[in-house]
Amino acid sequence: MAENHSIYTQSAVIPWRESNGKIEMLVISSRKRKRWLIPKGIVEAHLTPAQSAAKEALEEAGVEGELDDTLLGVFDYPKWGGVCSCEVYSLRVVKIRETWQEDYRLRKWVRPKEAAKLISQTGLRKIILRFAEVCQQI
Q: Most CB contacts within 10 A, which of 9, 23, 32, 97?
């Protein structure tokens, strides 16, 4: 049997802020509000993966901020009958819009350990926890 290669390439962003000296991460609901996730989408041809992820944060979560184009990690998951490989970056949130393109999604600010519990993708959970550890050292 042939090895299963990634067919789709996505990028995602962990939106975060500091509140009362502690890191909080923003998770959003899936389209049908059955799962919690972070903003992600197909990498657009005219954008870098990090820029594309920041665009998704604005569209899906209504947040803008300081994008860090340092790759935090990559996780794979099944999607559309294939495998999706998703690069993850971080975005320090500086602006939260009251209305945005996909404002049917719920938003929830949580501590990193809670974010990891809410996220179903194992690879992404590991990236979130590793990012949280680094943030605590800043």
A: 23
Domain count, the chain: 1
Q: In the structure encoding, which two tokens stand for residue 122, read together?
A: 């194992």
Query: Does residue 70 sit within a domain?
Result: yes
Residue 106: CATH number of its domain: 3.90.79.10
d(CA 115, CA 118): 5
Q: Where are the alpha helices (DSSP H) in the chain?
A: 49-56, 112-118, 122-136
Q: Which tens digit of pLDDT belongs to each residue from 35-62?
A: 999 999 999 999 999 999 999 999 999 9
Tell me if 96 sits within 8 A of 24, measured CB to CB: no
The answer to whether the Cα torsion of 84, 23, 90, 97 is positive or negative is positive
Does the residue 1 lie in any domain? no
- How far is the C-alpha of 106 from the C-alpha of 61, rounded, in Å? 8
Could you list the residue range(s) of the whole structural domain that residue 103 is in?
Answer: 8-136
Q: Token digits for 60? A: 């899906």
- Position 25, amino acid: M
